[in-house]
């Protein structure tokens, strides 16, 4: 009798349980799909090829930064300096190019600046034993100051067409920034899933002490994730500077928050050790689609921020509830 | 006295891929010490988490003093008079002893401020009642593990619990402290409190418990009166089979000295530690908690600095600055605390086992997946690990299987010296024997093993030679044939006995 009742209860539970596990695995994808459906019902121009490519182009800047942020957060750290590093790199690139230096020299110098600032971040965290939050907060301020010093507070313009192509050009209809973004994510995916370095990143975030006792050189690998974050901020600087056809002294203000939001939306835990680069790409697209949808629907820009923040919180709450 | 306090009826609980509990019942009387035993993964912790309101149950009911209760959260459990003392201590190191004891229910005075005087006074009385001379104003972080454990118990008692669950309360306690705890438990029992006592140290059950419920593979085997059981019967009930030998120790001919340490010193932890381990030898290091024995192992492994001393491997002087150096030289360290030091819990079995040897498994920067998979399959097979796939996350494994993962990790490094600190802590009898068997097999292959352990039985059962440490120095050395429990205890308590 009792066992009958129990098996009946189990039966009734089964489909729900299955739905639960589906939601758990694909929660963020489903939220994303829902968002797309709603927006395409509300706005005719949403689900068009040109608008979708437009979204992808807009997303690329945040997504590339968020890719770097994923590495850092997977080790249990955080990088608040990404927006400032982007600004410094953009200014250096624009400065050199507007002075007539060759394209590769300008871009190379920008990436080197990003790597150097990231290295500094990493060394302060690992050798100086400063909390990542504080170390990169300091770098955020220093980077912004350096940008203002370098630019004198004015935009740098007069960039060559070959450079502008990186922001505005297309490769068989696909915007160049989107191509760059896809490359960045493919390489990041390869590093995180296939290499020893990737394994160490997860191990350090999952249990730093156990990683150290397993012979992992924790300090070096932790430093390297900040270098990666710095370089990808600089890559993003290339896209942004080329798209705006100028380096702005205030470029990248607040970008760290969108990047962190994309990573967290993508299911990576801030404690480190758990998450994926694919999730980050989805997270970045959710934020991009929200931005785009609110614009298409002509929502007052003041309200847009409120809505965006609320949607991000809702998505994360939903995700936590399902886990 | 024999009123039923708690009844758990037909409790079932499943996790994805695991059936943790199946129709388990448990009855605890008021004024009874009820032991709950079973191998790792038998379902003890899950059952207690359901009782404590941490997990929801899938089926079954819980009755307290005859009426049905729903326990939806740890707070509710506490309000119902249920207190659980967890194996892992939940304390805030930066707060004082008194603050920890009264965390979340501090004595107040208007308009809502903490009544510090009352808090310290009450904490002081509580600790004195336990026979503890700990200043309630001391920060918990400055206490020894044993003291922290006792503070945790004091905290549980301050909550006026009707039902107290103790999960391995003596794991970090010395013999004296254990005795004190037992006096205390008897005291509670006399006051009509029901106590659920979980332990792997079966001899304790015969000292303190009235009845024992045995779980195996998520099911209840039965409830027995302790006075009517023998140790062997209890083990058979737990394991479900006869354990032929508890310590499968073999005599292996000793080879050349493989590890030779001389005058190792670390200020405040240990000094002038010298010993030699030969190929094929198992050297036991015994001593109480805080004797510095684990720290010696960590220092040899490069995980803690040395102020003085030298290390020779196969006669060659070596410098070890980091665990990476030690691994490269062929030294492995099975750590004492698998969750904190041994495993990366959110990672897979695969990633954990190959973590120390990834460098060997790569081409350029890329992990050779096929080679790794072959190695993992072999490793899982060799240690007979209860895993469904190499991709299973180690957090979801039972304690015994987790320990096998830790040991397996170090087998992959093909170490010539294996330092094993508390190699069987918190795992069940069956898994222990498997670990011992593995140690024997390693010794036969010529590995030199240093086993640092607080469990007297395994030190006596598995070592070829035994060193005893007390307050950072070696106080005695016994060959296997001359070692007795009494002699080791005396040396561990500080009596010097050297040069046998």
From TrEMBL, chain B:
CDD domains: ABC_Carb_Monos_I (cd03216), ABC_Carb_Monos_II (cd03215). GO terms for cellular component: plasma membrane. InterPro entries: AAA+_ATPase, ABC_carbohydrate_import_ATPase, ABC_transporter-like_ATP-bd, P-loop_NTPase. GO terms for molecular function: ATP binding; ATP hydrolysis activity. It is a peripheral membrane protein. Keywords: ATP-binding, Cell membrane, Membrane, Nucleotide-binding, Repeat, Sugar transport, Translocase, Transport. It comes from the Bacteria. Residues 6-242, 247-496 form the ABC transporter domain. It is found in: Cell membrane. PROSITE patterns: ABC_TRANSPORTER_2. This is Sugar ABC transporter ATP-binding protein. It comes from Candidatus Segetimicrobium genomatis.
């Amino acid at each position: 009798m009792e066992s009958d009742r129990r098996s009946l209860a189990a039966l009734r539970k089964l489909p729900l349980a299955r739905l639960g596990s589906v939601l758990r695995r694909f929660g963020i994808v489903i939220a994303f799909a829902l968002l797309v459906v709603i927006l395409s019902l509300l706005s005719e121009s949403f689900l068009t090829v040109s608008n979708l490519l437009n979204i992808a182009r807009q997303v690329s800047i945040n997504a590339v930064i968020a890719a770097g942020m994923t590495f850092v957060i997977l080790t249990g750290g955080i990088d608040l300096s990404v927006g400032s590093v982007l600004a410094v790199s953009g200014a250096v690139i624009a400065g050199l190019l507007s002075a007539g230096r060759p394209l590769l020299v300008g871009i190379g110098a920008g990436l080197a600046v990003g790597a150097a600032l990231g290295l500094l971040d990493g060394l302060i965290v690992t050798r100086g034993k400063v909390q990542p939050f504080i170390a990169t907060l300091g770098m955020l301020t220093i980077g912004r100051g350096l940008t203002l010093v370098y630019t004198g507070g004015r935009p740098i313009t007069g960039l060559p067409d070959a450079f502008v192509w990186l922001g505005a050009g297309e490769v068989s209809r696909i915007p160049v920034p989107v191509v760059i973004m896809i490359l960045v994510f493919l390489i990041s995916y390869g590093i995180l899933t296939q290499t020893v370095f990737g394994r160490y990143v997860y191990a350090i975030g999952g249990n730093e002490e156990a990683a150290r006792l397993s012979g992992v050189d924790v300090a070096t690998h932790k430093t390297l994730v900040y270098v990666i974050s710095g370089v990808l901020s600089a890559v993003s600087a290339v896209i942004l500077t080329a798209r705006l056809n100028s380096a702005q002294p205030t470029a990248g203000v607040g970008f760290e928050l969108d990047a962190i939001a994309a990573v967290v939306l993508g299911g990576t835990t801030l404690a480190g050790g758990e998450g994926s680069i694919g999730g980050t790409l989805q997270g970045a697209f959710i934020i991009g689609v929200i931005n785009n949808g609110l614009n298409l629907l002509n929502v007052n820009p003041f309200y847009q921020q409120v809505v965006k923040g609320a949607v991000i919180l809702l998505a994360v709450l939903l995700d936590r509830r399902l886990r | 006295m024999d009123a039923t306090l708690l009844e758990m009826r037909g409790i079932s609980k499943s996790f994805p891929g695991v059936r943790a509990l199946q129709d388990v019942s448990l009855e605890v009387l008021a004024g009874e010490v009820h032991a709950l035993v079973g191998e790792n993964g038998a379902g003890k912790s899950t059952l207690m988490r359901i009782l404590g309101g941490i997990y929801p149950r899938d089926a079954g009911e819980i009755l307290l003093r005859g009426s049905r209760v729903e326990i939806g959260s740890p707070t509710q459990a506490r309000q119902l008079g249920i207190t659980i003392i967890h194996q892992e201590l939940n304390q805030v190191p930066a707060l004082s002893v008194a603050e920890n004891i009264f965390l979340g229910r501090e004595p107040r005075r208007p308009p809502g401020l903490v009544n510090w005087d009352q808090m310290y006074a009450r904490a002081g009385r509580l600790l004195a009642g336990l026979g503890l001379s700990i200043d309630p104003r001391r920060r918990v972080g400055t206490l020894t593990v044993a003291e922290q454990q006792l503070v945790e118990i004091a905290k549980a008692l301050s909550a006026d619990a009707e039902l107290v669950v103790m999960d391995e309360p003596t794991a970090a306690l010395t013999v004296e402290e254990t005795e004190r705890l037992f006096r205390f438990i008897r005291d509670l029992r006399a006051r009509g409190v029901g106590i659920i006592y979980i332990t792997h140290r079966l001899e304790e059950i015969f000292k303190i418990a009235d009845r024992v419920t045995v779980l195996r593979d998520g099911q209840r085997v039965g409830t027995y009166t302790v006075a009517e059981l023998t140790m062997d019967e209890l083990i058979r009930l737990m394991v479900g089979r006869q354990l032929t030998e508890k310590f499968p120790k073999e005599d292996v001919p000793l080879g050349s000295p493989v590890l030779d340490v001389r005058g190792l010193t670390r200020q405040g932890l240990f000094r002038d530690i010298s010993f030699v381990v030969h190929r094929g030898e198992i050297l036991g290091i015994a001593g109480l908690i805080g004797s510095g024995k684990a720290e010696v192992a960590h220092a040899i492994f490069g995980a803690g600095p040395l102020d003085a001393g030298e290390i020779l491997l196969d006669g060659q002087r070596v410098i070890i600055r980091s665990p990476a150096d030690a691994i490269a030289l062929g030294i492995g360290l099975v750590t004492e605390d698998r969750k904190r030091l041994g495993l990366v819990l959110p990672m897979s079995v695969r990633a954990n086992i190959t973590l120390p040897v990834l460098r060997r498994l790569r081409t350029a920067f890329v992990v050779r997946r096929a080679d790794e998979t072959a190695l993992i399959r072999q490793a899982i097979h060799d240690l007979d690990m209860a895993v469904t796939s190499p991709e299973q996350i180690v957090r979801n494994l039972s304690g015994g299987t987790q320990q096998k993962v830790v040991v397996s990790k170090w087998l992959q490094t093909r170490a010539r010296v294996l330092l094993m600190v508390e190699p069987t802590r918190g795992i069940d009898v069956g898994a222990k024997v498997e670990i011992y068997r593995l140690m024997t097999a390693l010794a036969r292959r010529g590995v030199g093993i240093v086993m640092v352990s607080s469990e007297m039985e395994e030190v006596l059962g598995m070592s070829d030679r035994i060193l005893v440490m007390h307050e950072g120095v070696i106080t005695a050395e016994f060959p296997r044939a001359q070692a007795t429990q009494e002699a080791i205890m005396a040396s561990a308590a500080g009596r010097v006995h050297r040069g046998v």
